[in-house]
Amino acid sequence: MRILVIEDEAKLADYVKRGLTESGYTVDVARDGIEGRYLATGGDYQLVVLDIMLPGVDGFGVLSALREKLNTPVLMLTARDRVEDRVQGLEAGADDYLVKPFAFSELLARVAALLRRGPAPADTSHNGRMTVSNLEMDLLSRKAWREGQRLELTAKEFSLLALLARRKGQILSRTTLAEQVWDMNFDSDTNVVEVAIRRLRAKMDDPFKPKLLHNVRGMGYVLEERA
Hints:
This protein is α/β, with parallel strands linked by helices and about 230 residues long. The protein contains 8 helices and 12 strands. Strands 2-1-3-4-5 form a 5-stranded parallel sheet, with helices on both faces. A 5-stranded antiparallel sheet has the order 6-7-8-9-10, with helices on one face. Strand 1, helix 1 and strand 2 form a beta-alpha-beta unit. Helix 2 packs parallel to helix 3.
């Protein structure tokens, strides 16, 4: 398994490379966004660990260039912990997000999980548009349509839908949705996820066919077209 680490902090990059190498991975390191973009889009990597604050080209620019060509799993590694940055990264095509400082054991676990999952199956086009059956989304303008009809979604509803679409066919737990969309540790007494899912379904699924948003009892929710 080949992993590309794009990180300009030399000590952190060396630390991550050493730890991943000792865990059996082959690791290359890029020290800036320009080199990282070149390697990510032209190399044969199974995973990219990507910092946001990079010289030359920032992490979002690298991610955008990568998504125009490849669907390689991307773990964003950054000091930014605002939920807006996290959502922006996920909507731009990142598969997971880890905030500095972090325990290497957590990084290793997330790397292993992404490698098991493989490339995300969602269909994202070169211009930031994503389609799942007759659902269309423009991640840049944050707009969505079903059967050509514009969906009037709130910011949180769009973020929730974008996350589900990026992980098309994968069951996402309430905990994952709460952490990624609301930046909150899930509390079993909080029904924010269920309420948001219900409102999202009423707007983007109930009036249309086929049904795309499904409950998986005891596990969570999945966005996919079923026969």
